[in-house]
Design brief:
mainly alpha; single chain
Length: about 160
């Protein structure tokens, strides 16, 4: 679909397209983490629940993706803690702080490819799954490119 920029409705169409991609990415992430929720269930969890309702693990992934879009990509400690919590990954404050520091250093000192590879390595060194690496690599890529929305840019395949 071609969308002409500058039209009053073009921003809404762009937001919708980003939401659909994020929904697909959240469903794929949930499946890779052993969940069974599909895109329709995630859509319902994100759009049809009240704040404070338990949306389940896959719903938390969807909500985290939706929240990530509002602030773009970020590697600060609060964002790292939020992502680890959203993905249901065990963490301690020291791990989150160390990971945030390393991601910030990678983003400042390496190119795009080096940052992406380094992100996966940093996450795996801390015993976290590749899903986290993919998530943080996406955030750093979005940050580097100056995109207004974080989204599923880096794809990985579970080869287990």
């Amino acid at each position: 679909m071609l969308i002409k920029r500058g039209q009053p409705w073009s921003e809404e169409v762009e937001k919708r397209a980003v939401f659909v991609k994020k929904l697909s990415a959240a469903a794929a992430t949930a499946r890779q983490m052993g969940g069974v929720d599909d895109e329709a269930a995630l859509r319902d969890a994100v759009l049809l629940t009240r704040p404070g309702d338990d949306v389940g693990p896959a719903g938390r992934i969807g909500l985290a993706l939706a929240g990530n879009s509002a602030r773009g990509g970020s590697s600060d400690e609060a964002s790292v803690v939020g992502v680890l919590d959203a993905l249901g990954l065990a963490r301690d404050d020291e791990t989150a702080a160390d990971l945030a520091d390393e991601l910030t250093h990678l983003a400042a000192t390496h190119g795009t490819v080096g940052t992406t590879i380094g992100t996966f390595a940093a996450v795996e060194r801390r015993g976290l799954p590749r899903t986290g690496g993919s998530w943080f690599a996406d955030a750093l890529l979005v940050q580097r490119l100056g995109w207004p929305h974080a989204g599923p840019a880096v794809r990985w395949r579970n080869r287990q």
